[in-house]
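seq:
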Amino acid sequence: MKQYGFHSLCVIFLLLCSNYNILAQTGTQAEKLMNALKGKDLQNALTLVQNVDSVNYRDKDDFSLLMSASMRGYTEVVILLLEKGATVDLRSNKGETALMEAAHQGQTAVVKLLLDKGANMDLQSNIGGTALMKASQEGHIEVVRLLLERGANSKLKSKKGRTAYDYADDYSKNRVIRTMLLKDMKKK
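struct:
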């Protein structure tokens, strides 16, 4: 009887320890959500965002949940994070925002949503980059068009003295973007 009791206690002890380790390794809801976003697991992200415990959570690289969802174009997750109080212009340690990340990746619907929620389109990163510069550099015509229509400042310069036009000219070589930017710069 004693031997059976001892084995039972050992099994229970091992089960409790293994459950403790699993719980200790999984982290907070915000960490789980970040992992789902990084893993491009939209279904899991949509479930996890419902009960996220810190909407302005940042990972070890100082990337916020809103930035991660925005760059991937996960509009539904972005909406829920904003409804739960995520700071729309939260900056990384590099001074970048969710709008900059969405613009860089050409996520037009997310860019529109962030602008509708009050994102400042003329914020500059630590190196002076803007959402317009990032979209211009990558050749994202619709994002550039949207930012210009909403009044983005096409004359802003990075710390190296470069404008969105310069980035479009050097990187994307997109004539449509260069023409839009030139026209905008002339009217302001």
